[in-house]
Write a structure and sequence with these properties.
The complex is a heterodimer of chains A (266) and B (399).
Chain A: H1 3-13, E1 18-24, H2 30-42, E2 48-51, H3 62-72, H4 78-89, E3 97-101, H5 103-109, H6 111-121, E4 125-128, H7 139-145, E5 149-150, E6 152-154, H8 160-169, E7 174-177, H9 190-203, E8 208-211, H10 217-224, E9 229-232, H11 234-242, H12 248-264
Helix pairs in contact in A: 2-4, 2-12, 4-6, 5-6, 6-7, 10-12, 11-12
Chain B: E1 12-13, E2 16-17, H1 23-40, H2 43-57, E3 63-65, H3 67-73, E4 77-82, H4 92-105, E5 110-115, H5 119-131, E6 134-140, H6 141-146, H7 148-156, E7 160-164, H8 171-184, E8 189-191, H9 202-210, H10 212-225, E9 231-235, H11 240-246, E10 256-266, E11 271-273, H12 275-278, E12 280-284, E13 287-291, H13 316-324, E14 327-333, H14 334-348, H15 354-366, E15 375-380, H16 388-394
Parallel strand pairs in B: 4-15, 5-6, 5-8, 6-7, 9-10, 9-15, 10-14
Antiparallel strand pairs in B: 1-2, 3-4, 10-11, 12-13
Chain lengths: 266, 399
Amino acid sequence: MSRISSVFEQLKAQHKTALIPFVTAGDPDPQLTVPILHALAAAGADIIELGVPFSDPMADGPTIQRASERALKHHIGLKDVLALVAEFRKTNTATPIVLMGYANPVEHMGYETFAKNAAAAGVDGVLTVDIPPEESTGVADVFAAHGVDMIFLLSPTTPEARINVVAQKASGFVYYVSLKGVTGSASLDLTEVASHIPAIREHCGLPVGVGFGIRDGETAHAIARFADAVVIGSRIVQEIENSPREKIIENLTNFVRGIRVAIDAK
Amino acid sequence: MRIGELPDERGHFGPYGGIFVAETLIAALDELRREYELARKDAAFMAEFRHELKHYVGRPSPIYHAKRWSEHLGGAQIYLKREDLNHTGAHKINNTIGQALLARRMGKKRVIAETGAGQHGVASATVAARYGMECVVYMGADDVVRQSPNVFRMKLLGATVVPVSSGSKTLKDALNEAMRDWVTNVESTFYILGTAAGPHPYPMLVRDFQSVIGDECLTQMPDMIGRQPDAVIACVGGGSNAIGIFYPYIDHKNVRLIGVEAGGDGVATGRHAAPLSAGTPGVLHGFRSYLMQDENGQIIETHSISAGLDYPGVGPEHAWLKDSGRAEYVAINDDEALRAFHDLCRFEGIIPALESSHALAHAAKIAPGMSKDQVLLVNLSGRGDKDINTVAKLSGIEL
């Protein structure tokens, strides 16, 4: 069983919801990425989404786009991101890492080379935002052969019939994008989000993570009541952006701890 | 499969094209594809499209024999397809009319567009005014400065122009931002994509709407010279004017198809916008094609004297035409394009767009080596009024 699946099994047994924070690799600089990953795990992250910086992050809002730009100033590439994961794995073999990014850096490295190197570095799953299931033929097989889960998005605009198509290709978990828009968008209608989950569960046996628009403990708590995982990205990246470098670890820790408590509250 | 029958149903031209977008846009692209399939078979829709092209755009655009320039060059005869004479001054309007009619058919009241040189932005603002739609145009902040007359034109036409300050502040960033808008407002909004690129079905439908250019040439050339030209030459940024004139000629195997990319300071310098000449395949903006990218697969900044060619990717059908050998692609540097710009002004009394000047420059390069009874057909895709500030500045003149 993959590291991702076993995390969800354990949490299910404890009636807990997973917390998945997102940070961009190399933001604000590559030296701080591994300490940030350890801090997130220590503060209560069950899985960590690690963003692979890309020059043209089409599906991201300004916050995560700026994180990419900060990281790219250090010329951090996909192979550097894999090296950071390997570094993290030296002292943490428990917390799954999901790489989140765009197709081109992976395509440029080559899917086979990437899958092999990612597995060797200790990557557990990959979410390439702009590779929908229809374009993943071949890619999904390559990832599976190396034991890397391929995580796909579902959105409010996904027709029910299509959930099956996604479910057939997905492994690890599915990521429900809780609003139409880019990452970091503002308003979230919780009733609306909750109303989409039953259809997903009907067609897809995988755990359902929910993300986009979750900015505080209150929302995280509400989402945790019906989701298997709560994903928080832009709000965490903001914490990095707005903190002086020496306070980043402390501020991130406090923020993530607060979310953890909110999610676990009955 | 015959080249001309591509793309397949998921938008592939060989290994290129496809639908590489986030899940939120999949349903919108499906809807667009379904609607377009119905529209292209709907006689009333196509009749209205043709009616608009005739009475609003002023089609067919003429073909003109550039006799004095050809004589000066001393070789092949150069003929110009006068897309610069279209309403709004470029080929872009052919496509925006087609897409605006689709938007209206789909009940969308808001249209958005990206623009580089501003020609597509103007063409989008124009049709939005014509059909009574709200229009928002995304434009790189650098391009807003470079192309200020077009920015004012769009505003006169009632559009909102949003400068984009992220990334390299040019066309690719405007495209990113337009996609973000579309993801957010997907139910109310129609995205009028300006070139034969992006996720399927855009490369196909832009090609189909622009094919009127080549279709007209197919009958105009025999009327003028009794046969088809020896070669068709067009500039290639995203590639919509080129695919528009190439596509109807694909089956005419004796006609060479030559796409001209922006060589900037020279392909060898790395400062250019010529992905077919010096790029490698990758995925950007929803499709796979040749891209300008670094060793990490990051998209690199492009350089060209012409804002309309300043794009790191190229339409997927061009990638396929290149690999299949049916079309050839070359690069023309800034200085060569500028020389052709001035030559056309002086020899023919036509001020060409800097984009089109790249195609003209390649014609000027190969014509002298050809015989006087050979014919080059150049797509003069736009007029150069918008570029006079750029050209004046290069000549050290303050307007």
